[in-house]
Amino acid sequence: MTGHPPALELVGAHAAYGDIEVLHGVDLRVPAGAVVALLGPNGAGKSTTMKVLNGQVPLTAGRLRLAGRDVTGISAVAAADLGVCTIPEGRGVFANLTVRENLLVSAGRRATLTQMEEAAYARFPRLGDRRNQLAGSMSGGEQQMLALSRALGTHPSVLLLDELSMGLAPMVVTEMYAVVAGLAAEGITVLLAEQFARIVLPFADTAVLMVNGRVVRTGAPADLEEALSTTYLGG
Amino acid sequence: MPVLETHGVTVTFGGNVALDDVSIAVRPGEVTGLIGPNGAGKTTLFNVITGMQPVTSGGVRFQDRDVTRWSPGRRGRAGMARTFQRLELFLSLSVRDNVRVAGDIVRSNTRRRFDVAARTEQVLARTGLLDVADLDVSALPTGRARVVEVARALMTEPVLLLLDEPASGQTESESETFAELLLEIAGAGTAVCLVEHDLPLVMQTCTTIHVLDHGRLIASGTPAEVQASPAVIEAYIGQEATA
Amino acid sequence: MDTFLTYTALGLVVGAIYAIAASGLVLTYTTSGIFNFAHGAQAMIGAFTFYQARVVWELPTWLALVVVLGVLGPGMGWLLHTLIMRRLRDTEIVTRVVVTVAVLLGLVSLSQWVWNPQEGRVPPMLFGADSTVDLLGVTLRYHQVLCVVIAAAIAVALWWLFNRTRIGVLMRAAVDDPELLKLSGHDPDRISASAWMIGSTLAVLAGVLVTPVMGGTLEANALTLLVVDAFAAALFGRLRSIPLTFVGAVVLGLGSTYLVGYAPAEWTWVGNFQRALPMVVLFVVLLLLPHERLRGTATRSRERYQTPPLPRAALWAVACVIGLVAFGGLISEARVGTLLVGLSFAVIALSVVLLTGYAGELNLAPLGFAAVATLVAYHVGSDATAADPRLSLTGLVAGVAVAAITGALVALPALRLRGLYLALATLAFSGIVSAMLLRDTTPRTLFGHTFVIFPNGNILMPPLEVGPLDLADATTFLWVLSTLFATLGLGVVALRNSSYGRRLAAMKDSPAAAAMLGQRLMVLKLGVFALSTGIAGLGGIFMSMAVVSVSAETFGFTVSLSLVMLTVVCGIGYVSGALVAGLIAGAGITSLQLVLGDIALTHPEYRDTFDIVHHLLLVATALVGIGVANGPSGFLHDVFERQRGLARVPFVRWGGAAVQVALLLAAYAGLLGPALLLFVSVVLWSLLPAVATAWAPDRARPLPLELEGITTPNTLALRQRIDRELRIETEAGHARA
Predict the structure, then answer these.
(1) What's the domain range around B134?
(2) Does C510 touch chain B (CB under 8 A)?
(3) What is this structure's pTM?
């Protein structure tokens, strides 16, 4: 592992919304091919960290490296071009586009529409049945399947998953994470942010705990379990 | 006798069920907590209660009247007040005028005459905002700005006060002072309903807690009952906990 | 039956043109969120360019079409998007409207520069006027048939674009969620650029087709107002649905031809009503649209204004009256007339400050209300048969009251909806006023009283006489008008500092929070709209008295738009903003033209040069409006920020005031002319802050540490400084917490 630069690296990252700073110096390494879980209570800065990594929020200080290359200040469009695939928090689909059109938007340099459709419908046959239905009229679980399908055909270099389980029934969440595990097994680097988190720990190689805009612990998932319940339920 | 009751409130967006048959009650003189993971439907329920989100089915009763079809303004005049998760302050006004204008509005709506300026100073003192009263409200850090929203709501002397994540962005000491303020408001007879992620604050202030998950009410009870409920632990930690 | 078919066919042709124009409008609005007020102006440029290519340069039709549709349309769309519209993301509705209005004005001045409006240009029909075809017994020209065919083709093409092409799907995706589109590796800017190119081409196409169908010569203003007709059609689809927009366009087209065909002959107003039909329909549709749900505000205001405390404002009011009257004493009586026009414009601009600056609503046609007030005042308050008529106070009051009531009526249908709809409703109202009232030159009978609404298309407005005050005397007029402005200005400031003003600010900043506190938003909006149109009416009556002879052009929509735009440019939150904007719009441009005209008369060899300067001036004014995108608080805001530094050095400030008085006295002594006086004064006050800094370099006390980050931006550097000064070991401290 030491020979390869990390797929993603943040060094002393500060970021702010307007005058309000939310990241106060985050250091984060996501080794190539690893699955890293980013944990922490609401407002810890997990989502902002994700948005810094995919270029949506600019850094006010610190550096961002992608596969060893300094890309500080990169735009979201350019990051996506470099293979950073983000499944954002909440609704990750275009609600007024059909399933097929959603896949068409993600198709491009990395995959043709046909390849995208094949990969998506093979993994989620339900999407195949609904290819001409508007994404917004599907259930939350199906929408999340569609969002995740963006990563299926395109072979991203890094997959960022922000609160994949949010608002979904436990059954669906399990199904989603099975897909993520499959992608990880193919060697895709994955960083997943979760608030309520024990479910992701079995998948993760490393877990990172964030509180108040800082990384407070990094370690093997098992070591972090203890810390979690105190942070969340207040003991 | 509850001040507010929701009856089987259901809200669907497209194919998504945001709220599924939710019935809760909020009593005067108590702080009622509303908790649940992200996306559980807490803010949607607030929007239903205040009239900013129409229901697919179900209804809302406030002070023994069916208010389901009322506009937000009418509910406000009837004694509801709320704060907003994504702050909705009057950015061109000072902190004092943000609070004062709430009194101006109440006075313009009723024939009741009262000294708006004097009440403003009382509320500012009560909420600990006197030291920043002359500043532009946009200059405040988020934690204090949330207190301004609470102060503004208090100016209307509400029967029911709905607080949407009032403690997020507050420092630890601010949040402690805030807990005292909440208990004081409820102690004066106001019904307080609190959506909050800061669970220590919720456990410390609430008499009753309702837990939402996936738009459903999965538990209701005292803080101790809720903390012990397997369904709540499962919702918060994930289903592994029950295994 | 034959006539019915004829009217139906002609109605479809007119509807087809509305459809082409409206679909372009909807396309740009949905993909970029910017309502393009300049859409009609783009059509106008297209129509003139086609005329130029086809008739003046005598290019073959196909080549002229390539020039206009292949180069001008897409090029103009690309330029507008790249240079202007791209920067408007996350700005307020007021800024967006003003910037596109500025583009509109710029295009109109540009066209009048290139194509002298005095010349009549009859644009050719495609395929000529003689090629006709018989359909079901109705004879139609090829051009007319072509309009319908093109509209149908566009309907199909747009459907195909949005549902079957990648770029179309991306456009819809950009509407849905631009952030998610970026995450998929697509630049929403590039996608909206293509939407602007298509939209602009559709505008240009409508421009080429419309005039031969409607008849008459190319007219810049009429073509520019095509945006209102298109908007009326687009409203059927709530500015989103293209199919419903086509339905709306056809309804409008058929409505207008049936109206002319089947209205009883004694309805003499039908001809004018037909012109106004789209605008009338617009109001009806606005009434039928469902109420919009209350939501949190998405964008945060970048505008900042400081309202002075009342005593200081009163001091300024007195200084303003004295200054204006003193300056009036220096200039010739004819120029005093120009100054009076400027001042009455300033009163009208005050209505914009109240409405837009304080309440955040938009009225794009203050002069439409000025026209209503003038007409009422004229008919109620003056005796046209008298030898030397005067306007009575009753007339003045009646005019103002009717303007206020009209304002409330116009606002009523749009108040439940977004600010944009109110802005468009006012523009439509201005269209109705010019199409129906200001063209109505036939006698009408109302309550047994026969009169002509706008006799001969021109009114000689008599001066007001109240007790001992007779405004026939220019000096009295100046005293009265400057006192009126100062008093109203003071009143507006007092209002801002009152309970009412705070409630307006609350409504403007967060409608959701204000409503939740119990504010009845409709009542508040309606009240402030009526108050502001009342003020516009008052200013309008004074303007008519100052101008003396008023015609439809006096109240034209370009005049309204320029005034609103200039008020925003100067400072929409300031009474002084209204004063400067009014003076520039009403007096400044006129004076410069007079001065240039004078020089041109004495030096005929420079005539062309001055002509260019004159047009450049108009275009430059529009360019200034486009600059609002960068500084929405207005330029006076920056001026005041700089002058604030003077408060620390009262010596320099009072010294400046003394020099100013000395300059005025020198001017009275004939040592310098009024123009030079103005120039030197402006230089004096812009240099004073620099003098103050030189005199007392940075006397600013350092901010107490506990206020750092509260009154100043809370930055990383600042926090590190605080940590350093308080000797806090941050990293270790936080890790433990």
Answers:
(1) 89-156
(2) yes
(3) 0.85
